[in-house]
Specification:
- 2 copies of one chain form a homodimer.
- Chain A contains 9 helices and 4 strands, in the order E-H-E-H-E-E-H-H-H-H-H-H-H.
- By secondary structure, chain A is an alpha+beta fold.
- In chain A, helix 1 packs antiparallel against helix 7 and helix 4 runs antiparallel to helix 6.
- The first copy, chain A, has 2 domains: about 80 residues, Glutaredoxin (3-Layer(aba) Sandwich), CATH 3.40.30.10; about 110 residues, Glutathione S-transferase Yfyf (Class Pi), Chain A, domain 2 (Up-down Bundle), CATH 1.20.1050.
- In chain A, a hairpin with a 2-residue loop joins strand 3 and strand 4.
- At the A-B interface, strand 4, helix 3, helix 4 and helix 6 of A face strand 4, helix 4, helix 5 and helix 7 of B.
- Chain A: Pathway: Amino-acid degradation; L-phenylalanine degradation; acetoacetate and fumarate from L-phenylalanine: step 5/6.
- Chain A: Its main location: cytoplasm.
- Chain A: Its EC number is 2.5.1.18, 5.2.1.2.
């Protein structure tokens, strides 16, 4: 019976990690419920005792699916990919799969954790500089890698977990006023991907918890 | 002819004896019984050999490890480990069951995204006199999350009773915790798992104390 329940995503409209999961659900055509966790209000709703039982890292997203609770967006995405039909989110070829994971991890380990809310809150007045430093450093690495791996999308011509990670990270880059023009491959890929339905419906501007003044 | 010669070449790991991410890859190679060559990249000498133009072509993130294998170059330890798992025989590094696989990846990512990047060399160098406090904060925060999760998932090892990528990530992270004087006694499940895993051959041979680039004064 549990497997017939819709998955539940606990997330925040503007959390890039939550957005990654929303994109994956959309690409697979999976309906799901959202429980918004406001990261600022009430001292941050991710810090409640209740939410801590879902995700003891006190971060979003957390996903209830098939009777278990998972955190860490790439673990969730690969679980969805391995258990649901629909377009594969990783290529069949092992070398291409490795490239998808490498690009995803550069973003999910090498960039985003260094500019997420918890870290930024510790940086005080230096927060924009700090975030720009780590985003630029990551994009300076991604640009030559993507030049090698990209076709229409990040790795070849099929949408993958790498694309799922890239778009929300570019959104973050823009929020911190990083000049993405310096990274033409990243820019081109992002523009292509933003037009795709799964990326549009999952956009921060149109989620249940998007504030009125930020709605598309 | 050329292609088959490339596949017969041993993988090459560019790493550092004490880099926890490099150690993860060494453990994976050892668990699979794969022979490989090591090219040491000293992270401090010469301003940090990871910053040379030559190394940047292997890994533009200017971090270790980077692995040359089967004619390609990969970085990001978990991408390397899963590539090895998917292309080499030997004990699987992830479980067959999708829910357990997800738990292995979740635990691995808490370490590889949620802890280690916040206390790696590049970040620590920016923290000046606050570096130990900073590292302890992020390691403690991560271990406070891992402890209850591992209580649920662990059997003999991190997830059930088979060694997985989660165990591969855990041991080097506990080593880092000890370097930063984090009190691991507060985390009994982590402590117990680490002690069990440290006795396993693949974890011992890949230990920082016995690598080609281990300094004399740190050799076991």
């Amino acid at each position: 019976m549990a497997t017939q329940d819709k998955p539940v995503l606990h997330g925040y409209f503007r959390s890039s990690c939550s957005w990654r999961v929303r994109i994956a659900f959309a690409l697979k055509g999976i309906e799901y419920d959202q429980v918004p966790i406001h990261l600022i209000k009430d001292g941050g709703q991710q810090h409640t005792e209740q939410y801590k039982t879902l995700n003891p890292m006190q971060q979003v997203p957390a996903v209830e699916i098939d009777g278990i609770t998972l955190s860490q967006s790439l673990a969730v995405i690969q679980y969805i990919d391995e258990t649901r039909p629909g377009p594969p989110l990783l290529p069949a070829d092992p070398k291409k799969r490795a490239q998808v994971r490498m690009i995803s991890d550069i973003i999910a380990s090498g960039i985003q954790p260094l500019q997420n809310l918890h870290v930024i809150q510790k940086m005080g007045t230096e927060k924009v500089q700090w975030a720009q430093h780590f985003i630029d450093r990551g994009f300076q690495a991604l640009e030559p890698l993507l030049k090698q791996t990209a076709g229409k999308y990040c790795v070849g011509d099929e949408i993958s977990m790498a694309d799922i990670c890239l778009v929300p990270q570019v959104y973050n880059a823009e929020r911190f006023k990083v000049d993405v023009e310096q990274y033409p491959t990243i820019k081109r890929l992002n523009e292509t991907l933003r037009e795709i339905e799964a990326f549009r419906v999952s956009d921060p501007s149109c989620q249940p918890d998007t504030p009125e003044d930020l709605r598309a």
